[in-house]
């Protein structure tokens, strides 16, 4: 985290943007923009919305969520709205490097007085505050902490393949994928839309390189051309050979569902999958941990929390600034976070949440995040340590790899993505 924090703070310091409140204080409405339309995430948002409406009876809540896992569609729509100076009143953005692009473009307001009025500085972990701070000013309100490095698996399929415990290293993982393929008719590793391959890539890099070397990849001037990165990408290529892509239209949910339905052995996905698996029907799948599915740290990453955080912003010239402030108050409150996160499959960003609400996998996540000496790595795909430019360039290189399966070309693409990252 320190590494990522230094990189982000350094880049923020170079940007030189000012503050000042803009927009009207209109509280008649609030348009909240996110990409939470699926089971679990939409349910979490609905729970916060209901609490918001109870507390703010005069403010109409407009849910402007746009479908598409990891914001693939929503972020494009948002970029054009911001460009055309038609911002929503508040939008979802990831803590870390992703926020930088909005700050550099002067698209969001600092929230220092909001933090002071609501005594928020003491409520959040210091290392998280660093990821949303630029030149001493704070720019967003984190609502949760997600874990990216989770391996979800079907215990029955592993048993059929003769696998007694989940893999602890990338080498063991590859051996297990091979066993599933040889001994069962099931998909070894399910994959969804293209971005889920990017998500897999960050997990393979972390698992193969280790936390320090993974974090070093996001420092300015990092070298992606090393044999160690080449080896990890070779492993990524081999692992991709055991994947079956669900229809892209079913996004990450289709791939995650394949595991709990017993069609696939493994899926690597963030813990929003937990909200989807365990949420009540008809939206959620109503599945049971340990019976229908199990979890483990993604191979080679035990002891490291590859984290990301969803946060909400105050766009410059928000049409209903008063409504936006009321929403930020909800999203930053202990009550709001404790309503949202158990459904979302994440743990609260605040330090004072009610631990007893976090059961099953979420109890594990809670304990891991708070474990003394836990190592932290930032999820590049979910905004922590890659600029939007680098993020897009990596996605392009991965997209080409899906076509040509050429590991050397993938590495060359990632080397140039890092060189041109603008960080
Ligand atoms: C992440 C986001 C999560 C979840 C996930 C799947 O980028 O931080 O909250 O929505 O995408 O869409």
From TrEMBL:
Entry-linked InterPro entries: Bact_solute-bd_prot1 (IPR050490), SBP (IPR006059)
GO cellular component term, pick one: cell envelope
Keyword flag Signal: yes
UniProt keyword list: Signal, Transport
Nucleotidyltransferase listed as a keyword: no
Subcellular localization(s) per the UniProt record: Cell envelope
Major site of localization recorded for this protein: other
Function, in words: Part of a binding-protein-dependent transport system for a sugar.
Sequence similarity: Belongs to the bacterial solute-binding protein 1 family.
Stated name of the protein: Probable sugar-binding periplasmic protein
Organism of origin: Actinomadura litoris
């Amino acid at each position: 985290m320190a590494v990522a924090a230094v990189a982000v703070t350094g880049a923020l310091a170079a940007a030189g943007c000012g503050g000042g409140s803009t927009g009207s204080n209109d509280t008649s409405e609030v348009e909240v923009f996110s990409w939470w339309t699926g089971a679990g995430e939409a349910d979490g948002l609905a729970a916060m919305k209901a609490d918001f409406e109870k507390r703010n009876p005069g403010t109409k809540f407009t849910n402007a969520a746009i479908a598409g896992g990891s914001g693939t569609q929503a972020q494009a729509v948002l970029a054009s709205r911001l460009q055309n100076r038609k911002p929503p009143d508040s939008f979802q953005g990831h803590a870390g490097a992703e926020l930088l692009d909005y700050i550099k473009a002067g698209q969001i307001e600092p929230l220092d007085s909001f933090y002071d009025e609501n005594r928020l500085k003491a409520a959040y972990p210091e290392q998280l505050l660093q990821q949303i701070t630029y030149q001493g000013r704070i720019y967003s309100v984190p609502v949760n902490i997600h874990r990216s490095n989770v391996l979800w698996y079907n215990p029955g399929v592993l048993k059929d393949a003769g696998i007694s415990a989940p893999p602890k290293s990338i080498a063991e993982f590859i051996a297990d994928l091979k066993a599933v393929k040889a001994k069962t008719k099931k998909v070894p590793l399910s994959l969804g839309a293209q971005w889920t391959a990017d998500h897999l890539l960050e997990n393979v890099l972390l698992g193969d390189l280790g936390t320090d070397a993974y974090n070093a990849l996001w420092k300015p001037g990092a070298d992606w051309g090393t044999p160690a990165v080449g080896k990890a990408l070779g492993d990524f290529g081999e692992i991709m050979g055991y994947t079956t892509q669900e229809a892209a239209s079913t996004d990450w949910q289709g791939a995650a569902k394949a595991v709990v339905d017993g069609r696939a052995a493994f899926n690597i996905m963030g813990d929003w999958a937990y909200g989807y698996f365990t949420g009540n029907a008809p939206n959620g799948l109503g599945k049971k941990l340990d019976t229908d599915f199990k979890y483990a740290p993604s191979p080679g990453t035990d002891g490291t929390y590859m984290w990301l955080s969803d946060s909400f912003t105050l766009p410059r010239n928000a049409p209903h600034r008063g409504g936006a402030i009321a929403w930020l108050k909800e999203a930053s409150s202990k009550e709001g976070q404790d309503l949202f996160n158990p459904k979302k499959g994440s743990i609260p960003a605040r330090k004072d949440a009610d631990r007893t609400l976090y059961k099953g996998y979420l109890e594990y996540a809670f304990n891991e995040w708070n474990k003394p000496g836990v190592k932290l790595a930032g999820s590049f795909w979910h905004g922590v340590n890659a600029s939007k430019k680098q993020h897009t360039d990596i996605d392009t290189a991965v997209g080409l790899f899906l076509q040509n399966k050429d590991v050397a070309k993938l590495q060359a693409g990632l080397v140039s993505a890092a060189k041109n990252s603008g960080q």
